[in-house]
Amino acid sequence: MVQELVIAIVAAASAGALYTAAAAKVVKQYERGVVLRLGRLRDDVRGPGFTMVLPGIERLRKVNMQIVTMPVPAQDGITRDNVTVRVDAVIYFKVVDAASAVIQVEDYRFAVSQMAQTSLRSIIGKSDLDDLLSNREKLNQGLELMIDSPAVGWGVQIDRVEIKDVSLPETMKRSMARQAEADRERRARVINADAELQASKKLAEAAKEMSSQPAALQLRLLQTVVAVAAEKNSTLVLPFPVELLRFLERAQQPVQQQPVQQQPVQQQVAPPQTGQPQRRAQGQRPAQAQPRPRPGPPQTSPGASAPTPSPPPVPAPPNAVPARSSRPKPLARH
Q1: Which of 158, 71, 154 is closest to 117 using CA atoms?
Q2: Could you tell me if residue 149 is left (phi over 0), alpha (psi between -120 and 50 degrees) or otherwise beta?
Q3: 91 and 63 in contact (C-beta within 8 Å)?
Q4: What is the 3-state secondary structure (H, E, C) of the chain?
Q5: What Cα–Cα distance (Å) separates residue 205 from each residue in 87, 191, 200, 201, 242?
Q6: Is pLDDT of 275 > 50?
Q7: Contacts (Cβ under 8 Å, ≥6 apart) of 121
Q8: CA 53 to chain centre
Q9: Can you give the C-alpha Rg of the chain in angstroms?
Q10: I need a surface site. Which of 24, 151, 214, 288 has the fewest CB within 10 A?
Q11: Is the pLDDT of residue 280 over 50?
């Protein structure tokens, strides 16, 4: 009899221990416990620590209240300017209402993941490629607002959404590289042109100063020669001296010369004397006119010296009286 009583007590103690073990629950600090009694939600949400539930009647579901980091799978989309891109992101969220996270949605993690993917594809189609590459802060805010709107009813709060990477096709990368190279080349040319303008102004001022002191130009030339010869890898040739260049500059200046006026040579021919006609003597033939020699170079013998040129005849003044011939006049016959 005593033995049976001991066995019953041990069995009861064992059952009580098993019941206590099944009813005892421990909720961690970062968790909250949602109790369902016979399928109905209890109003009280169990906090962290030790708690008891009725085995078989109540059921305890623990909800993590920590911030969850969830990567969003890469999504392919076409931007507003018709560029195919592949974008992936990361989302940070946490549960603020444990009861709603258990009752309102079946699996809040899966729901948030799907909503993030849909919102990411939507934001890609509404944005340009330049916004995806440079204006990500604005896109992140828009993406966070799109995900947070339905997640409020699930007891989930979206803390932050970040676009992690934007993948472009290889052709688009080459096009963007050419565009960036052209832009840099344009800026380099503008900077070079500005430098040339400033250098030309300084050179003009230097030339103005050197023009007042000619020796400064020679000193500058010697400095240039020394600078070139210091490298010892080139040959310097100066074909023209500086003085010859100055002579050429003076020769280019116009020289004003007055032309010499030559007076025309007038030959005075004595007019025939009137009243005393000249008669030919009988039996006397008129002299034949000898041919005038043609002008040509003077002929000199090999041993003879070159004849000295005779001075040109001095023209007589226009009012000069012709000289009378010393030849006797013929007598007239009656």
Answers
A1: 71
A2: alpha
A3: no
A4: CHHHHHHHHHHHHHHHHHHHHHHEEEECCCEEEEEEECCEEEEEEECCEEEECCCCCEEEEEEECCCEEEEEEEEEEECCCCCEEEEEEEEEEEECCHHHHHHCCCCHHHHHHHHHHHHHHHHHHHCCHHHHHHCHHHHHHHHHHHHHHHHHHHCEEEEEEEEEEEECCHHHHHHHHHHHHHHHHHHHHHHHHHHHHHHHHHHHHHHHHHHHCHHHHHHHHHHHHHHHHCCCCCCCCCCCCHHHHHHHHHHCCCCCCCCCCCCCCCCCCCCCCCCCCCCCCCCCCCCCCCCCCCCCCCCCCCCCCCCCCCCCCCCCCCCCCCCCCCCCCCCCCC
A5: 59, 21, 9, 6, 21
A6: no
A7: 75, 77
A8: 74
A9: 63
A10: 288
A11: no
pLDDT in tens, 47-91: 888 888 888 888 888 898 999 999 999 888 888 888 889 999 999
Amino acid identity for residue 301 in this structure: S
Q: How many CB atoms lie within 10 A of CB 75?
A: 19
CA gap 118, 126 in Å, rounded: 13
Token readout for 149 is 């709107």
Nearest in space to 119 (alpha carbons), one of 139, 136, 133, 135: 139
Contacts of 79 (CB under 8 A, 6+ apart): 85, 124, 125, 127, 128, 129, 132
Instruction: Quick: pLDDT tens for 225-248.
Output: 777 777 777 676 666 566 666 766
Cβ-contact 48, 42 below 8 angstroms: no
Residues forming a β-bridge with 95: 156
Pairing outcome for strands 68-78 and 84-95: antiparallel
Backbone angles phi, psi at 160, to 5 degrees: -160, 145
- CB-side neighbour CA atoms (13 Å) of 235: 2
Average per-residue pLDDT for the chain: 76
